[in-house]
């Protein structure tokens, strides 16, 4: 079963109405199709289709595996593709996830054929039939009549002619496409700065929105400056990050966030609304999230307020995983956050998590899975040992940030890690233990042993995926340090301030 290389194809159009009903319907439909295709059996045409309607829109869905897969491998492949679909294409009117061994697709128009007999013709061709023995004459020599030879030669010549004509027209079309892409690239390169400049806010509007950066509007302060709540003239609430003038890294951080965040669009990432660079002021304007940070709900709740229940926490875990999957694999740029912590997880009105603070994110090349850096950036104590000691970072850097729970796991008491405030409330033990299990896999000593974010999203959403047994994780930076090999480590740590 192969999942690499893969392709994600979305049509770019989103549902504006009945989005929740559409998402629920698609989830149920895809779940039924995955089961139906996987149950077809080895060697069969392992595909399934279904049409479902929401309001006046019909959704056509198809899932399929290559015939060489077993039922279990087909199920795993389709579940993995479905997890990627949830992450990249939520709310879109059509999408296609292509793996070498399977693919899933849905559209609002028919894209597969139905024969007159009522059977569906899959997109994948069936396996070629076993060659039959040709009639032979005496001595084992085959006999072919002149009519057969002429018919075969004519057929071959006709096929070659069609193939040649097809290649000619395809090469012409491809040349035109390349020319069109080049033109589009030149236009986009010229418009890149214009697009960023269109996000620029007037300083006067920001001063009016924040009441001249009033202390009453202040939400908190980080290593690079303060954050204020503001209200625009149209009533829209915003979060204004005013970068400190005295910060030596402020200009770099500002340019990094504007160039990076403006290109990122995902429901589990904070949305950049604009910026201001005027009169030595460097300001970022984000969407305002009324529930502040996850840190506030975990550590700063008043005693008389009910704690965050398990259902909400489980939802937040899944949202963070989907956001990281987008950063690591599905965004235009491959990004490693490097400063992921509860205070950098913001919550919207419906308690949906949104990852914030991309100032310390490192942009890796498209074909790069890990990179070296000469300076540690992030919050010390939230980073894996190979990053602190060997200055090596990868996508698994973010995954290491989950808490180490090896001792209780080893002793058979994983539920001791559960927040004591939840023990008198409703929660699902299997879900809690599975999350702890996945967390332990994410803190393995060898980065190669840690699961990718695509695997983590699949593990969280499908109990059909068997989890491997975790090994003891690395607990301290000294664990990975070579003995008798002194090294210099310049750590740039972020100060932690309450929100």
Automatic annotation (TrEMBL):
Highest rank taxon of the organism: Eukaryota
Subcellular location(s) per record: Membrane
Listed GO CC annotations: plasma membrane
Sequence intervals crossing the membrane: 148-169
Record's compositionally biased regions (Polar residues): 477-499
Domain Gnk2-homologous: 3-111
Membrane-protein topology: Single-pass membrane protein
Listed SUPFAM superfamilies: Protein kinase-like (PK-like) (SSF56112)
Sequence segments annotated as region (Disordered): 470-499
Signal peptide annotation: none
Predominant location: membrane
One Gene Ontology molecular-function label: ATP binding
Record keywords, A-Z: ATP-binding, Glycoprotein, Kinase, Membrane, Nucleotide-binding, Phosphoprotein, Receptor, Repeat, Serine/threonine-protein kinase, Signal, Transferase, Transmembrane, Transmembrane helix
Classification via PANTHER family: CYSTEINE-RICH RECEPTOR-LIKE PROTEIN KINASE 5, RECEPTOR-LIKE SERINE/THREONINE-PROTEIN KINASE SD1-8
Family note: Belongs to the protein kinase superfamily.
The protein, known as: Serine/threonine protein kinase
Record organism: Parasponia andersonii (Sponia andersonii)
């Amino acid at each position: 079963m192969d999942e690499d290389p893969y392709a994600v194809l979305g049509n770019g159009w989103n549902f504006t109405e009945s989005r929740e009903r559409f998402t629920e319907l698609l989830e149920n439909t895809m779940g039924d199709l995955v089961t139906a295709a996987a149950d077809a059996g080895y060697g069969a045409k392992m595909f399934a289709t279904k049409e479902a309607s929401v309001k006046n829109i019909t959704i056509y869905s198809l899932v399929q595996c290559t015939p060489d897969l077993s039922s279990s491998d087909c199920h795993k492949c389709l579940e993995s593709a479905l997890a990627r679909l949830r992450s990249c294409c939520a709310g879109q009117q059509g999408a296609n996830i292509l793996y070498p061994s399977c693919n899933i697709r849905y559209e609002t128009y028919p894209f597969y054929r139905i024969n007159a007999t009522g059977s569906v013709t899959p997109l994948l061709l069936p396996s070629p039939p076993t060659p039959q023995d040709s009639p032979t004459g005496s001595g084992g020599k085959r006999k072919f009549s002149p009519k057969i030879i002429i018919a075969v030669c004519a057929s071959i010549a006709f096929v070659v002619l069609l193939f040649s004509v097809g290649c000619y027209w395809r090469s012409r079309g491809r040349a035109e496409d390349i020319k069109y892409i080049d033109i589009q690239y030149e236009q986009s390169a010229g418009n890149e700065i214009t697009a960023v400049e269109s996000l620029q806010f007037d300083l006067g509007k920001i001063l009016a929105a924040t009441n001249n950066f009033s202390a009453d509007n202040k939400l908190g302060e980080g290593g690079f400056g303060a954050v204020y709540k503001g209200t625009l003239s149209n009533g829209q609430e915003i979060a204004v990050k005013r970068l400190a003038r005295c910060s030596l890294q402020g200009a770099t951080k500002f340019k990094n966030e504007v160039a990076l965040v403006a290109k990122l669009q995902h429901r589990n990432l904070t949305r950049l609304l604009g910026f201001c660079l005027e009169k030595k002021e460097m300001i970022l304007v984000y969407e305002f999230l009324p529930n502040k940070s996850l840190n506030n709900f975990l550590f700063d709740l008043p005693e008389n307020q009910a704690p965050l229940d398990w259902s909400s926490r489980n939802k937040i875990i899944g949202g963070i995983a989907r956001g990281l999957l987008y950063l690591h694999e599905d965004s235009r740029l491959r990004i490693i956050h490097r400063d992921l912590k509860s205070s950098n997880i913001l919550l919207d009105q419906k308690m949906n998590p949104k990852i914030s603070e991309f100032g310390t994110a490192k942009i890796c090349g498209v074909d790069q899975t890990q990179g070296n850096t000469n300076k540690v950036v992030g919050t010390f104590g939230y980073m894996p040992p190979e990053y602190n000691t060997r200055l090596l970072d990868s996508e698994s850097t973010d995954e290491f940030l989950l808490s180490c729970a090896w001792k209780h796991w080893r002793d058979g008491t994983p539920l001791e890690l559960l927040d004591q405030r939840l023990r008198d409330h409703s929660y699902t033990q299997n879900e809690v233990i599975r999350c702890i299990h996945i967390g332990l896999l994410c803190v393995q000593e060898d980065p190669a042993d840690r699961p990718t974010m695509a695997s983590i999203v699949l593990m969280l959403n499908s109990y059909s995926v068997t989890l491997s047994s975790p090994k003891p994780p690395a607990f301290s930076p000294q664990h990975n340090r070579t003995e008798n090999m002194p090294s210099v480590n310049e750590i740039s740590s972020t100060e932690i301030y309450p929100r």
